[in-house]
């Protein structure tokens, strides 16, 4: 692969004097620089990806124009881009299901999968969320990135990187449609801002809907035009711009008892809304933020070409013309920015950061006494090796374990829990644990040695559609529970358990 990693980096003021990077700036906008950085290497659970295509959307343009995300000014240089598609160039330790050369789309949203919103299936509202091109997380407009494999999705042969880069915006659209409860036969109004005739003409060419170009009208007058075009007020309105006039139209143009989904994010903390219209019409008003559990469906729709994204690609730009691509996006031209790779980038300033991984383990007695079931009422106390925590695991010294009816049933019948199947191998009993943390594995945060914790005994994949919807007990890959072969229970001095299943 290339020995350097060319990235499109946004600087608020531009690089300091002497920085060996190539920058272009447009009037009133941030400085986008072509900067060569070290090629990142895939760590545990990660893929190294050679990026092939990245889409540019309105939030990218806003970040480029203002060097700020909402009310937060950009403090440090940031790689742009969050709508990626690329090919696997390297597979990190512990990753399965991917091979070098696979074409993949990447969900740009990172969530912890441990907080309450994540466990409820609302990863978009994660208490610890971050996203590509959102500080401190760099984006994907680069030759190479590394990304968690659980957020990567293989695409079938025949699908192009251009199409794959549309999966992220399609996931957003799906999330909005699901939140708004759109059904066949509904009259649906989509409100936007900064619309021009070219965009409306293109929209009409790829849909069967009507378009209304609003210029110098009151929101009430526009609502009447919408009613005429739709044959009635909208059942559902999707407001996608956060422009005050467009927001007002969305409320006036929606039928009695209808739904208004606010999907646009305003740079202003407060916006006026026609409250009387909302209450008098008993409108169901919802907010929307990013997406959750929609990426798999978006991948399926693109992969099957149930949604054909190919007509949406009208402009492409090489990596070297990043500023030109953003200027075109700011003018409202439809485009997809396609990255071209260089084998060598001369004059680049190589920047790299190294994060040191470490394992912390407390001093402990070198004894791990376990209650092991061999057969009917054949429970033996054995001294087994003390387990050591791996990545994202805690080593726990057990303090208390409850015994319930299923434990007694196993002991009396030597049967697997909830079945009539005999146990095949000796297994440690117990699944109602509480203990104290005595060791931290790699990548664990939020816990310290000495913390008293309880543990959820159910292991699920956390990656299938059912798990992501919050129904971990129905995991599509089969849930594994303490005392269910091959998973030992917790009637022992020490166990290791995933940190995201432990609670202080």
UniProtKB/TrEMBL annotation:
Metal-binding listed as a keyword: yes
InterPro entries the record matches: ADH-like_C (IPR013149), ADH-like_N (IPR013154), ADH_Zn_CS (IPR002328), ER (IPR020843), GroES-like_sf (IPR011032), NAD(P)-bd_dom_sf (IPR036291)
Protein origin, superkingdom: Eukaryota
An example Gene Ontology molecular-function term: oxidoreductase activity
Cofactor: Zn(2+)
Entries under SMART domains matching the protein: PKS_ER (SM00829)
Residue intervals of the Enoyl reductase (ER) domain: 30-336
Entry keyword set: Metal-binding, Oxidoreductase, Zinc
Family: Belongs to the zinc-containing alcohol dehydrogenase family.
The protein's name in its UniProt record: Sorbitol dehydrogenase
């Amino acid at each position: 692969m290339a020995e350097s990693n060319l990235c499109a980096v946004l600087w608020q003021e531009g690089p300091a004097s002497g920085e060996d990077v190539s920058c272009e700036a447009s009037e009133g906008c941030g400085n986008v620089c072509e900067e060569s950085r070290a090629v990142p290497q895939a760590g545990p659970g990660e893929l190294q990806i050679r990026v092939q295509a990245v889409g540019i959307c309105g939030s990218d343009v806003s970040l480029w124009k203002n060097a700020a995300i909402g009310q937060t000014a950009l403090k440090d240089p940031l790689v742009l881009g969050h709508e990626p598609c690329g090919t696997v160039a390297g597979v990190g330790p512990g990753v399965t299901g991917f091979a070098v050369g696979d074409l993949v789309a990447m969900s740009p949203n990172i969530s912890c999968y441990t907080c309450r919103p994540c466990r409820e299936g609302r990863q978009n509202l994660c208490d610890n969320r971050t996203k590509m091109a959102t500080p401190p997380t760099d984006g994907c407009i680069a030759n190479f990135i590394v990304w968690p494999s659980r957020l990567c999705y293989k695409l079938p042969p025949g699908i192009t990187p251009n199409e794959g880069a549309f999966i992220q915006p399609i996931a957003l659209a799906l999330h909005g449609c699901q939140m708004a409860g759109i059904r066949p036969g509904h009259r649906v109004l989509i409100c936007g801002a900064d619309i021009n005739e070219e965009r409306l003409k293109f929209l009409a060419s790829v849909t069967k809907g009507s378009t209304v170009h609003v210029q110098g009208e009151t929101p009430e007058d526009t609502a009447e035009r919408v009613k005429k075009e739709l044959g009635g007020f909208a059942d559902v309105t999707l407001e996608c711009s956060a422009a005050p006039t467009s927001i007002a139209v969305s409320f006036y143009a929606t039928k009695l008892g209808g739904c208004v989904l606010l999907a646009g994010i305003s740079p202003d903390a407060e916006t006026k809304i026609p409250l009387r219209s909302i209450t008098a019409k008993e409108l169901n008003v919802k907010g929307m933020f990013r997406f959750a559990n929609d990426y798999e469906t978006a991948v399926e729709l693109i992969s099957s070409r149930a949604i054909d994204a190919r007509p949406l690609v009208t402009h492409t730009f090489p990596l070297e013309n990043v500023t030109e691509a953003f200027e075109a996006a700011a003018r409202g031209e439809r485009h997809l920015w396609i990255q071209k790779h260089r084998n060598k980038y001369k004059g680049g300033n190589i920047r790299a950061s190294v994060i040191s991984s470490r394992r912390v383990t407390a001093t402990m007695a070198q004894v791990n006494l376990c209650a092991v079931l061999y057969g009917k009422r054949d429970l033996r106390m054995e001294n087994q090796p003390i387990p050591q925590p791996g990545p994202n695991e805690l080593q726990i010294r057990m303090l208390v374990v409850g015994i319930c009816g299923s434990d007694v049933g196993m002991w009396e019948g030597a049967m697997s829990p909830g079945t009539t199947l005999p146990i095949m191998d000796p297994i440690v009993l117990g699944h109602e644990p509480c203990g104290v943390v005595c060791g931290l594995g790699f990548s664990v945060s939020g816990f310290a040695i000495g913390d008293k914790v309880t543990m959820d005994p159910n292991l699920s994949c956390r990656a299938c559609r059912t798990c992501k919807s919050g129904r971990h007990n129905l995991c599509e890959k089969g849930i594994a529970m303490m005392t269910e072969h091959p998973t030992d229970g917790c009637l022992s001095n020490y166990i290791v358990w995933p940190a995201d299943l432990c609670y202080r």
